[in-house]
Design brief:
The complex is a heterodimer of chains A (about 550) and B (about 260).
Chain A (H helix, E strand, L loop, with lengths): L9 H5 L2 H24 L4 H21 L1 H9 L1 H30 L2 E3 L10 H13 L4 E6 L5 H17 L4 E6 L5 H7 L6 E6 L8 E3 L4 H12 L4 E6 L16 H8 L3 E6 L13 E5 L7 H12 L3 E5 L17 H10 L1 E3 L3 E3 L15 E2 L22 E3 L8 E7 L5 E3 L2 H6 L17 E8 L7 E6 L14 H15 L2 H4 L16 H32 L1
Parallel strand pairs in A: 2-3, 6-7, 6-8, 8-9, 9-17
Antiparallel strand pairs in A: 2-4, 4-5, 10-13, 11-15, 12-14, 14-16, 16-17
Chain B lengths: L2 H13 L7 H18 L1 H27 L8 H28 L1 H7 L4 H22 L2 H9 L4 H28 L3 H21 L8 H7 L3 H4 L6 E3 H24 L4
Helix pairs in contact in B: 2-6, 3-4, 4-6, 4-8, 4-9, 6-8, 6-12, 8-9, 8-12, 9-10
Classes of the chains: A alpha/beta (about 550), B mainly alpha (about 260).
Chain lengths: ~550, ~260
């Protein structure tokens, strides 16, 4: 032991200065580490400086208080080799950290999900391309996520990074913790933790478009809304027992307003009896399964709207309504307008298709659809299932002008059963005197376009069923909602620009396994596999013991 | 000759690097020995049994509830459980690897053989990782069963398996590091579990930490790098680098600790 302050007498003489010096050095090293970490996380300057200074002082205490011990340790082989090892280790870890930071900045990812959930679709890329070409309107995306919702934030960030990369500097994003910056959250009118807002970079927060479901469709649509300053108004005709867009039960159609509403499409109800005319801002009207007839006045307003290039989606109710109440009964005003003006007839029958694979002959599944028409193009082969559908007739003695195109067709074996009482009793059969049957199958939906009257062509999508588009049935098969979105798209002509067709993800379909299958799976996974392993282990142990 | 010169010469003698020609065989021999040890040790079979029983239970129950509630399949449920189990499994599998050798004095013997220190560490690590890989291969039966009753996203399953495999490598490397720190297996195991818990909880504790520390805590989270990408069907090179660098760092430090026995 060399000379140290401990050689003095009194209280100071009883102090083990070597231990104090070594402890000081250890604490000093720890404080230097704290300073290094603080620098790495960009902590406050005082924290870094204080820990740095105290660290240096701590280390300096050793040579100051016990110089000989310090010198001896430094010259010893432990210090030499320990120092070398520490230096090499720190250098190696440093290289790893630098490598990690560089890789992190490169942001290289591969999306292996079946539907490319974290890869931008061509539609999104096209939208972003427009932002880039436009150049003058950079987009900023703000996500409000508290610390508790870090996982959800990560999920969204995976996607936002793709937008930022594709945006070439014209699309940026940031995350704000609403707990830390409640004022900013209030400026945006944040409704709940986990909301994303899309805005022009120079726009006020209150003009930002909220994205409640921050997936690719929601974000791309919001970017479109920011860049295309159009509003779309869809009116649901009421007063005849129709399904309503606000109705959330099985019979309602709230899914439409939920889906399209978040993309800027606005929905309103329209009482044709009360309104002097169809509002001018109507992008399209929806008549969703009316169960009472329209008055001649109402039909006149509809006709006037169509004359001005109006757009109409008509979904017919099933035929089990009194003939007097049926808005599509022969001689009813609406039916007369369809027949005389457009040359189409909604039959008062029910399609029976023995070839239907939906589980019931009265749930016809179209075997053929128009692959080129705007309404059905988005089906991309996805099945559509109607529930108690009427057939639609393309009348031979139609007026010249309107172009009528069948969209969905039954199998040639299907017929339109007109004996509704026989249907209820289950004793029905094809009767060639009354029931319709066509060589190419019955038409279940039709698109009509008439450009002979106004400057703008009138368009109608006429569908033989309304149940398929209710909350209960719209998603039983992907074709149902795709058909509706296709109809909105074709009728309005601009919905296409704000609606990405939702991707059909097969992996989102529910699991189906019988009880027997579940029991077998349980046996295999909980008994056979683990206990076989245990048995092999027991044999090995037994054999080794015998040796 | 002074004492100092003697010490220096002695040190040079002790720290002299073993002949290079023994390297591949040395690594291979240690790897084979370690892997073989797992297949002759009843404890290893018991660990495999417990892991497969637990994951089988979770897979089966998850499947039943998804059928009941008509929910879509999730091929990552078992792997998310597995990575959590690694907090305890990794130290359990690695705690004896170097601690036992040290306690029984066989590590000194190993160090005198023509094998590099790094090969000793790497051979033992690869043996443990190979053993765990075999358990994971057995667990591949779950996605096959799932595919027979549904259409799970195969891409997500593949990335989740890659992620869980890398996760296990990092966890085993950390466990091995603590096995080198002490000659007491229990202490090694305890330290390994403690380190894994800290790395696991880093992300959960992040919201409670000062804002400056949060990014750092999230970056070191061993679980966050799995759940934020691999478990979602994405391979992020940053997360791959995290696990690979974690393995490299832990194995490097372990090697230095083993090497320090030559001059301590």
């Amino acid at each position: 032991m060399g000379k140290s302050m401990g050689s003095e007498g009194g209280f100071l003489g009883s102090v083990d200065w070597r231990s104090v010096g070594r402890t000081g050095a250890a604490v000093g090293l720890a404080l230097l580490f704290v300073a290094f970490v603080s620098m790495a996380v960009q902590a406050d300057a005082p924290v870094i400086i204080v820990s740095l200074v105290l660290g240096v002082i701590g280390i300096a205490l050793w040579p100051m208080l016990a110089l000989s011990d310090f010198t001896e340790w430094m010259q010893g082989r432990q210090a030499r080799y320990g120092g070398n090892t520490a230096l090499v280790t720190v250098a190696f870890i440093g290289i790893l950290v630098v490598g990690y930071v560089l890789i992190d900045r490169a942001s290289l990812t591969w999306d292996l999900t079946a539907t490319g959930k974290y890869t931008l679709s061509d539609e999104s890329r096209e939208v972003i391309e427009n932002v880039v070409v436009d150049g003058g309107n950079p987009i900023h995306i703000v996500g409000f996520y508290s610390s508790q919702r870090y996982r959800q934030r990560e999920n969204v960030e995976l996607l936002l990074k793709r937008y930022e990369e594709a945006g070439q500097g014209l699309i940026t994003y940031e995350f704000i913790d609403p707990d830390e910056e409640p004022t900013v959250a209030n400026l945006y009118g944040m409704e709940y933790d986990g909301m994303v807002y899309v805005q022009r970079r120079d726009a006020d927060p209150e003009d930002a478009i909220p994205v409640r479901n921050p997936d690719e469709q929601g974000i791309t649509s919001a970017i479109l809304q920011v860049t295309i300053p159009e509003t779309f108004m869809v009116y649901f005709v009421t007063n005849h027992g129709e399904a309503r867009y606000e109705q959330t039960g099985n019979d309602g159609m709230s899914w439409m307003s939920d889906l399209l509403g978040s993309m800027g499409v606005q929905f309103e109800e329209l009482n044709l009896l009360a309104a002097p005319e169809v509002p001018e801002d109507a992008s399209m009207l929806v008549i969703a399964g009316p169960r009472l007839p329209f008055t001649p006045e109402e039909v006149a307003k509809l006709e006037a709207y169509l004359d001005n290039g109006g757009r109409l989606l008509i979904m017919t109710p099933d035929p089990w309504i009194n003939e007097d109440d049926d808005p599509f009964a022969p001689d009813s005003p609406l039916e007369e307008m369809l027949e005389e003006r457009f040359g189409v007839r909604v039959r008062r029958d029910l399609i029976i298709d023995g070839k239907s694979n939906a589980g019931d002959p009265s749930w016809p599944v179209p075997v053929r659809s128009s692959s080129t028409h705007g309404v059905t193009r988005q089906l991309m082969g996805a099945p559509v299932v109607f529930f108690f559908s009427r057939s639609i007739e393309r009348m031979d003695d139609a007026p010249a002008g309107p172009v009528r195109l069948g969209l969905l067709f039954t199998s040639p074996d299907a017929w339109g059963e007109t004996d509704l009482e026989a249907l209820l009793s289950g004793e029905y059969q094809y009767d060639e005197r009354h029931d319709a049957r066509e060589d190419n199958g019955l038409q279940m939906a039709m698109a009509i376009e008439d450009s002979t009257v106004g400057e703008r062509a009138a368009r109608i999508v006429l569908v033989g069923d309304a149940d398929f588009a209710t909350n209960e049935h719209y998603d039983v098969v992907p074709g149902n909602w795709r058909f509706i979105l296709g109809a909105f798209d074709w009728l309005t002509e601009f919905v296409e620009s704000v609606t990405l067709p939702p991707t059909f993800d097969e992996s989102e379909q529910p699991i189906f396994a019988t009880s027997q299958q579940q029991n077998i799976i349980q046996w295999v996974t909980m008994i056979i596999i683990p206990f076989s392993t245990l048995a092999i282990g027991a044999v090995v142990w037994w054999n080794r013991r015998r040796r | 000759m002074t004492d100092e010169t003697l010490v220096s010469e002695k040190t040079e003698e002790v720290t002299e690097a073993p002949p290079r020609q023994g390297r591949p065989n040395g690594l291979w021999a240690i790897f084979k020995k370690e892997l073989g040890h797992y297949f002759t040790s009843p404890i290893a079979y018991f660990v495999a049994f417990a892991t497969l029983l637990l994951t089988g239970l979770i897979f089966s129950n998850d499947l039943r509830s998804r059928v009941l509630y008509q929910a879509p399949p999730d091929g990552t449920v078992v792997l998310q459980t597995l990575v959590f189990l690694m907090i305890f499994l990794a130290p359990l599998l690695t705690m004896r690897l170097l601690a036992e050798e040290t306690r029984e004095g066989t590590l000194e013997l190993l160090l005198t053989m023509p094998v590099r220190d790094g090969d000793i560490v790497l051979g033992k690590f690869l043996g443990a990782w190979a053993y765990f890989t075999i358990i994971m291969v057995v667990m591949l039966v779950y996605p096959f069963i799932l595919a027979s009753v549904s259409s799970p996203d195969q891409g997500v399953i593949i990335t989740a398996y890659i992620g869980a495999w890398l996760f296990s490598g990092a966890a085993l490397a950390i466990g091995l590091l603590f096995s080198a720190v002490t000659e007491n297996q229990i202490v090694a195991g305890f330290l390994g579990v403690a380190a894994m818990v800290v790395l696991w909880l880093a992300e959960i504790l992040a919201p409670m930490a000062p804002p400056e520390l949060r990014p750092f805590l999230r970056e070191i989270s061993i679980e966050g790098h799995f759940s934020s990408s691999f478990a979602r069907g994405v391979i992020d090179l940053t997360d791959v680098a995290y696990y690979v660098f974690m393995m490299a760092g832990a194995l490097f430090i372990t090697t230095r600790i083993v090497e320090s026995r030559r001059w301590r």
